[in-house]
Design brief:
The structure holds two protein chains of two kinds. The longest helix of chain A is centred in the N-terminal third of the chain and has 34 residues. Chain A has a single domain, classed as MetI-like (MetI-like fold), CATH 1.10.3720. Chain A is globular, with a radius of gyration of 23 Å. By secondary structure, chain A is mainly alpha-helical. In chain A, helix 3 crosses helix 6. Chain B folds into two domains: 49 residues, no CATH class; 233 residues, MetI-like fold (Orthogonal Bundle), CATH 1.10.3720.10. Chain B has 14 helices and no strands. The chains are: A mainly alpha, B mainly alpha. At the A-B interface, helix 1, helix 3, helix 4, helix 5 and helix 6 of A face helix 1, helix 2, helix 4, helix 5 and helix 6 of B.
Chain lengths: 264, 298
């Protein structure tokens, strides 16, 4: 191995790539404080876009829609996805490979295909589009992601603890709730955070299942930015990026704690 | 794909009198949901794709392959070709840019900071993909950041936005972290003693790299490339916000059949099936040649 402290071309190149990854985010951040509406040149520090943002009723109600969708979809999916992961680890049955394959589909199939299929299905059942149909559609990918994350945690657990609980007279349900679920908690939480971020970020599936009844944030942002650059969207980006950074930090902390727990 | 861990058996045995209850309670609700809102709808668009000329609110004729034959028209073949070119090009770019980063992170970065550095690289993934594409629009537009910088240093400006170049930049930017993550998982497992042995036997570093490092990480490279290929093939946001009218790709075309002015559901469903087929083909390749473990770890 080469000396770690010497400056080599891969380290220089990597530094350049870090700059590439953060450049657009920094640009959004800087321009959210720029007084100018149209120009990319700096015309003085201003908080006007933040003021515009927080008095923008339409945007705030879109944020509320998005949060409602994400929280409900993730909460329900947390239960269903965790049960799925436990069931897949625990039982052998005919068609298990197929079941597992189907549970991976939302991770692989492009959003546009899922969105189209859901719309056609809802239309053929004559189900009116609303906030509820968005939640139902989001649950599909939320529960798939949560099941995958929980399954990877489950795989690395010590099965002896649960067995010990059963030997000591716990019922299977008690063993599940008091022993297995607490051990899985970091995995469940990490899965929920991932699903939450994906739900908040989803444009296509929401667009196809929203109808006129709901207007989640990505749809609102998309309809504004496709016609040009909007400084108040810069300010919104900064607020959302800070929110996601907080969630990402939380997720990494949970993972770090989970890893340490396993090592002990 | 994990085998059933045997120590969990006692749990199932306690349920023996009601053997079906456990599996149904655990696997039933999620399974029903996926069946109802994923499997059934997909079968439905397969059916609809076989009804030529189906439009919203119109009585349909019989089954036929008309929608699929329509895809064979040159104008639509060009859209499919463009989608493939976007996906292939950005996959190659992600590999070329991502490999050195993953290499440095896995083998050369200070051990103490390694995890933090890796997390730092993939952190932008947590932010909205829509806003990241929008940020590139702000950089690349005619009066944008890039041209301002170019003017400042005395270079000629250019319109970058609404060109294929902008789409390649946006796609590469969006999916580079995934590539790095998968390559990192693969490079981390590289047995560096092989490189030392090669060096002791007189191999140059570049021989060691091409004859040991690359072949050893080939499954990871394949997995990363296929994952990026699949994701970029079906991407909608980047081509729409950065590519403009000239960058119509398959997902934008599908979008237009349903939410745009045309409303040709049958044709849109056929395009969807073609996209699903292309992705399935890539997945089959991934399962055959790729490093499944490094994908599932990420």
């Amino acid at each position: 191995m080469s000396a770690p402290r010497s400056i080599t071309w891969p380290s220089l190149f990597t530094a350049l790539m870090y700059a590439f990854m953060y450049f657009p985010i920094i640009v959004l951040g800087v321009y959210s404080f720029n007084d100018s509406r149209y120009s990319a040149s700096w015309e003085g520090f201003s908080l006007r876009w933040y003021r515009a943002l927080f008095s923008d009723r339409r945007l705030l109600s879109a944020l509320q829609d998005s949060l409602t969708i994400a929280i409900v979809a993730v909460a329900v999916s947390a239960v269903l996805g965790t049960l799925m992961a436990i069931g897949l680890a625990r039982y052998r049955f005919r068609g298990k490979g197929l079941y597992r394959g189907v549970s991976y589909l939302p991770l692989i199939v492009p959003d546009i295909a899922i969105a189209v299929a859901t719309l056609v299905f809802l239309a053929s059942m004559a189900i009116p589009l609303s906030l509820g149909t968005i939640i139902a559609a989001h649950m599909v990918f939320c529960l798939a992601y949560i099941a995958v994350v929980v399954a990877s945690r489950l795989q690395r657990l010590d099965p002896n603890l649960e067995e010990a609980a059963l030997d000591l007279g716990a019922t299977p349900t008690q063993a599940l709730i008091k022993v297995l679920i607490p051990q899985l908690a970091p995995g469940i939480l990490a899965g929920c955070l991932l699903a939450f971020v994906l739900s908040m970020d989803d444009l296509l599936i929401s667009s196809f299942t929203a109808g006129g009844g709901a207007n989640p944030l990505p749809i609102e942002i998309f309809s504004r930015v496709r016609t040009g650059v909007k400084p108040d969207i810069n300010a919104l980006s900064v607020v959302l990026i800070l929110g996601s950074a907080l969630l990402a930090g939380l997720a990494e902390y949970v993972r770090y704690r989970g890893d340490r727990q396993r090592q002990l | 794909m994990t085998p059933v861990p045997s120590p969990l058996r006692p749990w199932a045995d306690r349920f023996a009198p009601r053997r079906w209850l456990g599996p149904v309670a655990l696997l039933g609700p999620g399974g029903v949901w996926l069946l109802l809102l994923l499997v059934l709808p997909t079968l439905l668009i397969l059916e609809i794709s076989l009804v030529p000329g189906l439009r919203l609110g119109q009585p349909s004729g019989g089954y036929g392959l008309g929608n699929y034959l329509q895809i064979l028209q040159p104008v639509y073949l060009r859209v499919i070709g463009r989608s493939l070119a976007f996906a292939l090009g950005s996959t190659v770019l992600c590999l070329l840019l991502g490999f050195p980063v993953a290499y440095w992170l896995a083998l050369m970065s200070p051990q103490r900071w390694r995890n933090l550095l890796l997390v730092g690289f993939i952190l932008p993934l947590w932010t909205s993909s829509l806003l990241r594409a929008y940020a590139w629009a702000a950089i690349l537009r005619p009066s944008g950041v890039l041209n301002t910088i170019l003017t400042a240093v005395g270079l000629p400006t250019q319109n970058w936005l609404n060109t294929p170049t902008a789409v390649f930049i946006g796609l590469t930017y969006s999916f580079l972290p995934y590539m790095v993550l998968i390559l990192y998982a693969s490079l981390e497992k590289l047995d560096t003693r092989l490189l030392e042995a090669a060096a002791d036997l007189g191999a140059t570093p570049s021989q060691g790299f091409w004859k040991i490092t690359v072949p050893q990480t080939l499954p990871g490279i394949a997995a990363g490339c296929l994952l990026v290929f699949i994701s970029t093939l079906g991407d909608f946001v980047v081509p729409t916000l950065l590519g403009g009218a000239s960058s119509m790709n398959i997902s934008r075309l599908i979008y237009n059949q349903f939410l745009g002015p045309t409303r040709a559901w049958g044709f849109g469903s056929a395009l969807s099936m073609v996209l699903i087929l292309a992705v399935s083909l890539a997945i089959a390749l991934l399962l055959r040649y790729g490093d499944k473990r490094s994908v599932s770890e990420t």
